[in-house]
Amino acid sequence: MSQPANPTAAAIRFDAVEKALAAQGKGRVVALRDVTLEVPPGAICGIIGRSGAGKSTLLRMVNGLERPSSGTVTVAGHDVGRAKGAGLRRIRRDVGMIFQHFNLLASRTVYGNIALPLEIAGLPAAEIRSRVSDLIARVGLEAQAKRYPAELSGGQKQRVGIARALATRPKVLLSDEATSALDPETTQTVLALLRDINRDLGLTILLITHEMGVVRDIASDMAVIDAGRIVEAGPTHDVFVSPQHPTTRSFLSGVTGINLPGFIAARMQDSRPDGPAQEVIRVTFSGSHATDPMLARLASEMGTEANILAGAVEEIGTRPFGNLLISVDAAKGAAARGFLDRHGLMTEVMGYVR
Ligand SMILES: Nc1ncnc2c1ncn2[C@@H]1O[C@H](COP(=O)(O)OP(=O)(O)OP(=O)(O)O)[C@@H](O)[C@H]1O
């Protein structure tokens, strides 16, 4: 078996991973196909996909809950798929996990839940006390330390989950839809906590989600999974600016503030109609580009008036990213796009309206 040239370079690495599962009545289901993906140390990597795309299967391979049918999964250079016994336990200590429904023990307090993995690992009582106190402070639950899960809000429960996952000082944190059961405001506070942990502890985070907003708000890198295949991957900013795959685009249309007004969407058609029509163009820009002067120049230099239909500027990481939907006279569409492209904006024809 060939080994990667520098097996420690990536925190997590999937090499040509396939996973076939025996499904009742359906024969074999191929959950993952030829998955190759590298997560650099210290990255926050978001994996997005629809229900059944294979996200959970992919995540569960990182702590050995699933083994590849073929291919290799390594964590910090250790082959998880082939590890057994003490070797597998050692890898699992390096990999913490948090869950959508928190998976806390109802019979234990906040303190007791966080202490559990340390008790299992057999740490001395004094060491457990000191570590748990530090973790409780880190996740901001000092006032709740003696409470039971039933007395906590969803956000507080997830904080306990995060503290428990960090107890064994892992190198990697896996997040299985950790904010899916939370309201938008609580989601933001939990994502902020994960960002702090990533920054302060240098922890690599691999998270799965079906929400592009989560990827936008936290992930430095992302991959899109569709029917068991990685169809697109790269730095989050780059994927947002220039999505290549239809699945990525469909996920993006929900978050980038570029949904067409209903009365236009209803009249859109794919091909240019005969007679006068408007071409609807998506304009994407990143960095410090300002579109206003560019649209003014489009009018003054090209004689093409653009109607602004929708738009939003957001921040991904620390870099601005903008999306604008405009319409121009279809007869001048190609020239307008050429002008905007030449000036560093990216354009794409969305369709036509009469
Ligand atoms: N234990 C299993 N036995 C048989 N098939 C399975 C098993 N687990 C998952 N599958 C199948 O593998 C495919 C991928 O499932 P997986 O749970 O990884 O997707 P997912 O993207 O996490 O979906 P969701 O977001 O709904 O949890 C699906 O077709 C699913 O039905």
Structural write-up:
This protein folds into two domains: 12-94 and 170-253, P-loop containing nucleotide triphosphate hydrolases (Rossmann fold, 3-Layer(aba) Sandwich), CATH 3.40.50.300; 262-353, ACT domain (Alpha-Beta Plaits). The chain has a six-stranded mixed β-sheet. A four-stranded antiparallel β-sheet has the order 2-1-4-5, with no helix packed on it. A four-stranded antiparallel β-sheet has the order 12-13-11-14. The chain has helices at residues 55-60, 85-93, 110-120, 125-138, 154-166, 184-201, 212-218, 236-241, 246-253, 262-265, 291-302, 333-342, and strands spanning 12-23, 27-39, 44-49, 70-75, 78-79, 95-99, 172-176, 204-209, 221-226, 229-235, 278-286, 307-316, 319-329, 346-353. Helix 3 (110-120) packs across helix 4, helix 4 packs across helix 5 and helix 5 (154-166) runs parallel beside helix 6 (184-201). The protein has 354 residues and is of the alpha/beta class. The relative contact order is 0.12. It is 33% helix and 30% strand. The termini are far apart. Strand 1 (12-23) and strand 2 (27-39) form a beta hairpin. The longest helix has 18 residues, at 184-201. It is elongated and about 80 Å long. It is built from twelve helices and 14 strands. The chain binds adenosine-5'-triphosphate. Adenosine-5'-triphosphate binds next to strand 1, strand 2 and helix 1.
Defining key terms:
single chain, 354 residues, alpha/beta, Rossmann fold, Alpha-Beta Plaits, 2 domains, 6-stranded mixed β-sheet, 4-stranded antiparallel β-sheet, 12 helices, 14 strands, 30% strand, elongated, disordered N terminus, binds adenosine-5'-triphosphate
